[in-house]
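Weekly sync, protein design subgroup
Attendees: M.S., D.O., the rotation student, P.L. (late)

Item 1: inverse folding check
M.S. brought a backbone from last month's batch and wanted to see whether the design step gives back something sensible before we order anything. D.O. pointed out we never logged the input encoding, so this time it goes straight into the notes. Structure tokens as presented (244 positions):
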């Protein structure tokens, strides 16, 4: 199975459409979305509809949980909270029901999918450092060969040994059976690694081969929609150009 895996679209339709076209060209067998389809951006309904239509599996992100009334987000900073309030007020009934129905984790054999750390799925803990990845050592036995996560908006891979964790720094690699892997797939709609291109990934379960990929999209179009919607903070548009 050749999976196309993506996360953190954050209502950025221009980026999502570009990534879906890239997956088409890459001839993947099935798509998996790791959550946070809503929040920050200008087109939450359109993005939910496209993900619903195209992804075989979708896991719940913290922004999805917030909008669907499944999580307290009163402690989020003002602009992020206001975007979530706005999205929950404009999402269609069907899209809200879909967000309410999403699971915290999906599995296909040895390939697992979730939004944040798999240690405690409902806590949405970040994993983007070796120290954070090491918190997975105690659950080594129940990790799949590869666990794909989102949440940090960073592209990071960690090989989890029974006693030690190593960061894998290449953009493409093959998994080794003596390790378990945590792979953070980056963000479609709001990259934060100073590379403004949309991030997407491919994993071939037969060969155990993984690829990080990036694709340019029309950032200006996405940003202008945010700037022209006065209910959204301009900062959510401005940061797209820098990829932060
Ligand atoms: Zn996110």
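Designed sequence read out in the meeting:
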């Amino acid at each position: 199975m050749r999976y196309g895996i993506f996360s953190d679209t954050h209502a950025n339709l221009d980026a999502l459409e570009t990534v879906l076209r890239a997956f088409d060209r890459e001839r993947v067998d099935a798509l998996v979305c790791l959550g946070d389809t809503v929040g920050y951006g200008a087109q939450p309904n359109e993005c939910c509809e496209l993900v619903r239509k195209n992804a075989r599996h979708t896991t719940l992100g913290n922004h999805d949980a917030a909008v669907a009334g499944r999580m307290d987000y009163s402690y989020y900073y003002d602009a992020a909270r206001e975007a979530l309030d706005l999205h929950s007020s404009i999402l269609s009934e069907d899209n809200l029901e879909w967000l309410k129905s999403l699971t915290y984790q999906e599995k296909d054999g040895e390939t697992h999918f979730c939004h944040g750390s798999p240690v405690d799925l409902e806590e949405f803990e970040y994993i983007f450092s070796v120290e954070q990845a090491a918190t997975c050592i105690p659950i080594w036995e129940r990790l799949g060969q590869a666990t794909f996560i989102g949440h940090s908006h960073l592209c990071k891979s960690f090989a989890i040994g029974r006693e030690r964790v190593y960061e894998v720094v290449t953009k493409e690699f093959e998994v080794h059976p003596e390790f378990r892997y945590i792979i953070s797939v980056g963000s479609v709609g709001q990259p934060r690694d100073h590379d403004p291109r949309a991030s997407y990934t491919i994993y071939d379960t037969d060969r155990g081969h993984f690829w990080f990929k990036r694709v340019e999209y029309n950032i200006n179009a996405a940003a202008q929609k945010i700037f022209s919607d006065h209910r959204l903070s301009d900062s959510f548009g401005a940061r797209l150009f820098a990829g932060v």
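Discussion: The mean pLDDT is 97. The CA atoms of residues 84 and 197 lie 24 Å apart.
Action: P.L. to compare against the previous round before Friday.
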